[in-house]
Amino acid sequence: MKIALIGAGEVALCLATEFCKSEDEVVVLTSTVKPSLKDIKAEVRLTDYSVEILKKNLDDCDAAVSTLSGPNEFYISAHSNILEACRQSRKCKHFIPSEWNINIEDFPDQPMFSAATHEVVRNKLRSQHDIKWTMICHGWFMEYLLPTEKNPLREIGLAWAMNHGTKVFDMYADGLQKVTLTSTADSARAVLAVLRDSINTGADLPPVTHLAGQTLTYRDLFQLIRTRDPAWQSNPVTFVEVLNAIHERLKANDALVAIHQMRIMGFTNANHNPKGKALEWGTGILQGLRATSVEEFLDQSESSEDK
């Protein structure tokens, strides 16, 4: 396959790194040349995200995988143009839009700050039949378990339960809500498997593809982290506390409201990809693949640090 990875941010770099370990050809589409791409064995093509330039860049590819985020208008226009470019292209008839999300099948209104914008793109995808598409839901990327200096993803502060600077773990209510964690590497390998199966067999793609590296409660996750490092402490967080923070920041028109809108998901199972919905590792589409557990992921991180 020839895969076009659209965008060159932190998530894209992680996916590209893993994509390039496969037998597939990888093309990265970006508006500017990023220094971080110099070590990636992928062809880099520049785009202004117009239909004309996207079509030119996608014409020889088999699938487009977007990691684009940004302002609402850009997200909608860029994804609309990618969809149209795929439609006009000779062979790029598979598209993964930029969701990289929690369980949006059962919680389509989450996260609150982006759901309405993403729903516009989802409706465009649902209303057409020329391009096969699926949204990837992996829960949280496992990389957020790592301290800031080792986490290749963007720092998101209170949006995630762990403050690595103070070693404080936010416990939402009783901590019995479940969270699914999947590494970017496992997610990338699964994406390639999903695309390869559909391209080779002609099979349709479901609107949502659930992946689940490991699922556990916040309480169990805290105990696992604390067993490895007893310095970690639990900080109880109440529902009212988060609601008040959202209310105050909405009144102040503060963009940081998004952080607290993500925290509210910790009181629900929105971060949980149920076993019955998630693709099963090692069988079917994911034949030959296995998921990395939290313990294994942390062990690998510590091992690489020691080298």
Automatic annotation (TrEMBL):
Keywords: NADP, Oxidoreductase, Signal. Gene3D superfamilies: NAD(P)-binding Rossmann-like Domain, UDP-galactose 4-epimerase, domain 1. One of its GO terms (molecular function) is oxidoreductase activity. It comes from the Eukaryota. The keyword Iron does not apply. InterPro entries: NAD(P)-bd_dom_sf, NmrA/Isoflavone_reductase-like. Residues 1-16 form the signal peptide. The keyword Phosphoprotein does not apply. Belongs to the NmrA-type oxidoreductase family. Isoflavone reductase subfamily. This is NmrA-like domain-containing protein. It comes from Penicillium cf. viridicatum.
